[in-house]
C-alpha cells in the first residue's frame, strides 16, 4: 500500500468525482482511476459506488476514509515537527555551567536567546569540568559554558566573552582597606580554590596567575561554598565580576590591578554533534558576542 494511494483516495472522497479529484491533484483521470482500483484490490473492498454523475463512498469506504484521514493528519504533524526541529525553532537546549550565569554579560545573552526563541526550552545543569566533559561526550548536555582554559577531547570551542577577576576577602582582612590589589600581595595569602581528585583545572589556573608557591587549599565544593569559607576567615579566593554582584555575608570584593586579571568564557560542544537547534544556539551567541564587542 502506497501513501500516494491513500492521498488520492482522501481527495476523491472529498471531491465526489474522479474528474474533480484529478483536477485538484493536477493528474490525469486515468491515473486517479488506476490508483483507486489498485487500492481496492489490495484491500479486497469496493471503496466507491460508481455512478454516471460521480462517486459515493460505500459503507466500508467510509470506515477506511475515517482512518485514512487520521493517518494523513498524523503524517502532516510528523512533517511539521520535522520542519520545526530542522529549522531549530523548537526543542530544548541543555546547557552546562560551572559558575552560575547570574550577572553580565551571561544574563543578557540568555535573555536575548529566550526572547528570540520563546518556544525553545533552556535547562541548566551545574557541574565540574570532568562531569560536563563526560556529559557532552555522552550527549547528556548539548553545550557547556566554561570559564578558563578548556582542553577536552573531540570538542569545538567558541570564545564568548571575558570577565574581570576580583579578590574575595574576609570583611575584617587588612587588605580590604586598599582600593585595588596586585598578584604579589595576594600570593602571600591562603588561597581557597575548587578542585576534585580528577580535576584540578581551577587550581592550575590560579597558579598561573599567582604562582606555584602559593598556599592553595583545595575543596571539592562549588564557588558559593568557597565564598562561605572566605566569609568565615579561612582564606581568600578569586571571583568573576558577575559573582561579585551577589551579596555574600562577611565577604568584601576588591578589584585586581593587573592586565591579566580576567577570565575567558567559552562555549564548548561535541564536534560531531549534528543538531540544528544547537547550531542555532551557538550561532546566536557568537553573533551577539561579536555585535556587543565582548571579545
Molecular structure report:
This protein is an alpha/beta fold and 295 residues long. It has three domains: 3-87, Winged helix-like DNA-binding domain superfamily/Winged helix DNA-binding domain (Arc Repressor Mutant, subunit A, Orthogonal Bundle); 91-161 and 263-292, 3-Layer(aba) Sandwich (D-Maltodextrin-Binding Protein, domain 2); 163-260, Periplasmic binding protein-like II (D-Maltodextrin-Binding Protein, domain 2, 3-Layer(aba) Sandwich), CATH 3.40.190. Helices cover 44% and strands 24% of the residues. The protein has eleven helices and eleven strands. It has helices spanning 3-15, 18-25, 29-43, 59-87, 106-116, 129-137, 183-186, 201-210, 223-231, 241-244, 276-292, and strands at 48-51, 54-57, 91-97, 120-126, 143-147, 155-170, 190-194, 215-219, 237-240, 251-255, 262-270. Helix 1 (3-15) crosses helix 3. The protein is rod-shaped, with a radius of gyration of 31 Å. The two termini are 58 Å apart. The mean pLDDT is 90.
Q: If helices are DSSP runs of H or I spanning 4 or more residues, what is the number of helices?
A: 11
How are helices and strands ordered from N to C?
A: HHHEEHEHEHEEHEHEHEHEEH
Q: What is the CATH topology classification name of the largest domain?
A: D-Maltodextrin-Binding Protein, domain 2
CATH architecture of the largest domain: 3-Layer(aba) Sandwich
In total, how many domains does the architecture comprise? 3
How does the overall form come out from the CA principal axes? rod-shaped
Proportion in helices: 40-55%
> CATH superfamily name of the largest domain?
Periplasmic binding protein-like II
Biggest β-sheet: count, sense, barrel? 7 strands, mixed
Low-confidence stretches: none
Kindly, what is the distance between the CA atoms of the first and last residues, rounded to a whole number of angstroms? 58 Å
Secondary structure category? alpha/beta
Strand content range: 15-25%
Number of strands: 11
Radius of gyration: 31 Å
CATH structural class of the largest domain:
Alpha Beta
Average pLDDT score: 90
Amino acid at each position: 500500500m502506497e501513501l500516494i494511494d491513500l492521498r488520492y483516495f482522501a481527495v476523491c472522497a472529498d471531491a465526489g468525482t474522479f474528474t474533480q479529484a484529478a483536477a485538484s491533484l493536477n493528474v490525469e483521470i486515468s491515473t486517479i482511476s488506476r490508483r483507486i482500483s489498485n487500492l481496492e484490490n489490495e484491500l479486497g473492498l469496493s471503496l466507491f459506488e460508481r455512478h454516471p454523475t460521480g462517486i459515493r463512498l460505500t459503507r466500508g469506504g467510509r470506515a477506511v476514509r475515517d482512518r485514512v484521514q487520521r493517518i494523513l493528519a498524523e503524517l502532516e504533524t510528523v512533517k511539521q515537527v520535522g520542519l520545526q526541529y530542522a529549522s531549530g525553532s523548537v526543542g530544548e537546549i541543555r546547557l552546562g555551567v560551572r559558575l552560575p550565569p547570574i550577572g553580565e554579560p551571561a544574563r543578557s545573552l540568555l535573555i536575548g536567546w529566550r526572547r528570540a526563541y520563546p518556544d525553545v526550552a533552556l535547562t541548566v545543569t551545574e557541574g565540574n569540568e570532568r562531569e560536563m566533559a563526560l556529559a557532552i561526550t555522552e550527549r547528556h548536555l548539548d553545550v557547556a559554558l566554561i570559564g578558563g582554559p578548556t582542553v577536552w577531547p573531540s570538542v569545538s570551542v567558541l570564545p564568548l566573552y571575558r570577565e574581570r577577576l576580583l579578590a574575595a576577602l574576609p570583611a575584617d582582612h587588612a587588605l580590604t582597606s586598599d582600593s585595588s590589589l596586585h598578584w604579589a600581595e595576594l600570593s602571600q595569602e591562603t588561597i581557597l580554590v575548587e578542585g576534585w581528585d580528577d580535576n584540578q583545572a581551577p587550581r592550575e589556573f590560579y597558579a598561573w596567575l599567582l604562582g606555584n608557591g602559593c598556599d592553595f587549599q583545595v575543596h571539592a565544593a562549588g564557588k558559593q561554598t568557597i565564598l562561605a569559607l572566605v566569609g568565615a576567615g579561612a582564606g581568600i579566593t578569586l571571583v568573576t565580576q558577575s559573582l561579585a554582584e551577589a551579596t555574600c555575608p562577611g565577604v568584601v570584593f576588591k578589584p585586581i590591578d593587573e592586565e591579566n586579571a580576567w577570565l575567558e568564557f567559552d562555549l564548548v560542544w561535541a564536534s560531531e554533534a549534528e543538531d540544528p537547534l544547537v547550531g542555532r544556539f551557538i550561532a546566536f551567541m557568537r553573533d551577539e558576542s561579536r555585535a556587543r564587542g565582548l571579545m
